[in-house]
Amino acid sequence: MSSDSNALASLWARRTRTPDRLRLMLIAAVVLAIVASVVVNIVVSTRGGATRSIDEDHEPAIEAAQRVQTSLAEADAAAANAFLAGGGEDPVQRQRYEQSLAEASDALAIVISKVGGDEGLLTTAASIEKTMVEYSGLVESARANNRQNFPIGAAYLSTASSLLEADLYPATDAIANSRADSYRSSYNDQVGIVGSALLVVLFLVLICLVGFLLLCHRYLSKKFRRTVNVPVLVAVLLSFGVLAWSTAAVAGQTSSMQTAREAGYNDVRSLINLRGLGFRAQNEESQFLIARGAIPESEFSVETDKVSALLEDLLTETTGDTTSGLDPNEVELLQTRWEAYRATRQGVKDLAVAGDRSEAIDLALGDSALAFDSFDAEVEKLLTGSQTSFEVEMDSARSSLRFLDLVGPFLLLSGAVLMFFGMQQRIREYR
Length: 431
What we know:
Blueprint: H1 2-14, H2 18-84, H3 91-114, H4 119-147, H5 152-191, H6 193-223, H7 230-290, H8 302-319, H9 328-353, H10 357-401, H11 404-428
Helix pairs in contact: 2-3, 2-5, 2-6, 2-7, 2-10, 2-11, 3-4, 4-5, 5-6, 5-7, 6-7, 7-8, 7-9, 7-10, 7-11, 8-9, 9-10
């Protein structure tokens, strides 16, 4: 027992010897550098992976799911307008119908490719695809009967529109909302408690490493009367460089992510929703004429009122103290164009109610359609701008973290190697 106590006492006494103290400092520095390297790699890889998932999977799936709905609403409005032209059919509206249907299919293919292995969403996407086939079949039946002036054609077209409202739109909403939840989860993982805790650990470890290396350099300067120990000083600078780089990268990534969400993603979702409601309002107008008064007048403005309410919300957001990326003047122009369409739409209704159905159809396919196209073009312009803003900010977020997960640990471990050489030079002086 006495010999063991003497050995421990000897080891404890040796801690005050300069070579042993230098070795302990070296071991602590290397351990800190390794821990810092691992933490940098974990934190940057985690944040980079979440950013990549949002940019490449979640947002594209949301946008594509809403595009499916918008394109089908556009197709439905075009089919109704083509039907209004009678047996001769409007070739422009027919072409728009076919193009919109193709765009919906392309968007659905993107959805399927972006939902990964989520069996529930894949099943939902398959049901959408099946509904689209059923819908197009009903439209073709309506078209065939319309060419022969059979009244049943209107029933087929009404059933096709009801199929979209009852089955397809809720299904696309389900996919978009599911991916939106994934988006929020990935976003919150970075700015929430877990993400913040990881950042605190990262910066504490890096600050401790830099501070400890500075203390080591100061100790060497005082002990050996040398102002600069080059390898140790370079290790300090490398560690400080990683700390500064990490701070700038995380701040840049967080700022870009926030801007992408508030001034890009949110606006994209609002505008796609607005565009879809707009087409449903136009289809509402055509269906009112096709039904020859069978649809109550009270239902004529259901979708129109939804669009007007959403426009008011957008205008309030852009003119108030918010982070929306939309220009208030552009939103006011959009609202002006919507009101112009709404006025011609009211004219269509008044003529139809008065019994001037032929004039009402001419107005619906003429000035009313042109007014709506002007409104839709403005929505598409804003939508393209918002989508571009989102992509630019997400590219910036990903660029902020680029190479840090690999180069950062390499620099820290290089600093540990330099620390080893710097300390060994001083240790050798005692041999």
